[in-house]
UniProtKB/TrEMBL annotation:
Species name: Kurthia populi
Known role: Involved in the gluconeogenesis. Catalyzes stereospecifically the conversion of dihydroxyacetone phosphate (DHAP) to D-glyceraldehyde-3-phosphate (G3P).
Subunit: Homodimer.
Classification of source organism: Bacteria, Bacillati, Bacillota, Bacilli, Bacillales
Name of the protein: Triosephosphate isomerase
Molecular-function annotations in GO: triose-phosphate isomerase activity
Length: 250
């Protein structure tokens, strides 16, 4: 049985006081962790304060990116060592916005996945096709190759603990959601790619989220699907009420 995981991705939104206010309001209302994993992936600047604010509760704090090196001359970057040191638990890797605007490659995502596990961080690895790729019938080949590249040379235990977020790029922040059936079909292909790379038993354990305009009105149907074990949510994770409703569906 795979435990649902709902992760908010705040991107470059909120001030520090707004972020703290959100965590203060949400932390006592989060469902018990044995029912659903509740995560908020916040701007890096806020992470130490939010980890402290959420301490001892069932709300976990994640980062939205990190470098794969433990330290070094990489101006502006944040290392896995630094995230682990302040007790961040999750890190989003390979979000399509980072792939598109910051040239993040499959190879870098794989290095980051290895680095995450080396520092006890759970990676939320994003994959997904563009509209052009979908229309050209390339969805499965694109997503499968991204998944296989991301988990290359990870151990079975690590892949079982990883979270993969299937996020069709055309559905992110656009209000267009994949139908539950379409999302489930591609999430099933993600599981199939994991099985091909490392084995069916491991693939049954890996949690696969859907992301792309998930909101309280559609989250229940998406989560009822066989291969969808949670959601990675941008816009609808920014408001307390809406985030709590997403968690209720978990
Ligand atoms: C995201 O940021 O990963 C995302 C899916 O955004 P939204 O929910 O706003 O589409």
């Amino acid at each position: 049985m795979r435990k649902p995981i709902i992760a908010g991705n705040w991107k470059m939104y909120k001030t520090l006081s707004e972020a703290v206010d959100f965590v203060e309001q949400v932390k006592s209302q989060v469902p018990a962790n044995d029912k659903v994993e509740a995560v908020v992936c916040a701007p890096a600047l806020f992470l130490p304060t939010l980890v402290e604010a959420a301490k001892g509760t069932d709300l976990a704090i994640g980062a939205q990116n990190m470098h794969f090196e433990t330290e070094g001359a990489f101006t502006g970057e944040i290392s896995p060592t630094q995230l682990a040191d302040i007790h961040v638990q999750y890190v989003v890797l390979g979000h399509s916005e980072r792939r598109e605007y910051f040239n993040e490659t499959d190879e870098a995502v794989n290095k980051k996945a290895h680095a995450a596990f080396a520092h006890n961080l759970v990676p939320i690895i994003c994959v997904g096709e563009t509209l052009e790729e979908r229309e050209a019938g390339q969805t499965v080949s694109k997503v499968s190759s991204q998944v296989k590249a991301a988990i290359k040379d990870l151990s079975s235990e690590q892949v079982a603990q990883a979270v993969i977020a299937y996020e069709p790029i055309w559905a992110i922040g656009t209000g267009k959601t994949a139908t539950a059936a379409d999302a489930n079909e591609v999430c099933g292909e993600v599981r199939h790619a994991i099985a091909e790379e490392i084995g069916a038993e491991v693939a049954e354990k890996t949690r696969i989220q859907y992301g792309g305009s998930v909101k309280p009105a559609n989250v229940e149907e998406l989560l009822s699907m066989e291969h969808i074990d949670g959601a990675l949510v941008g816009g609808a994770s920014l408001e307390v009420d809406s985030y709590l409703k997403l968690l209720e569906a978990g």
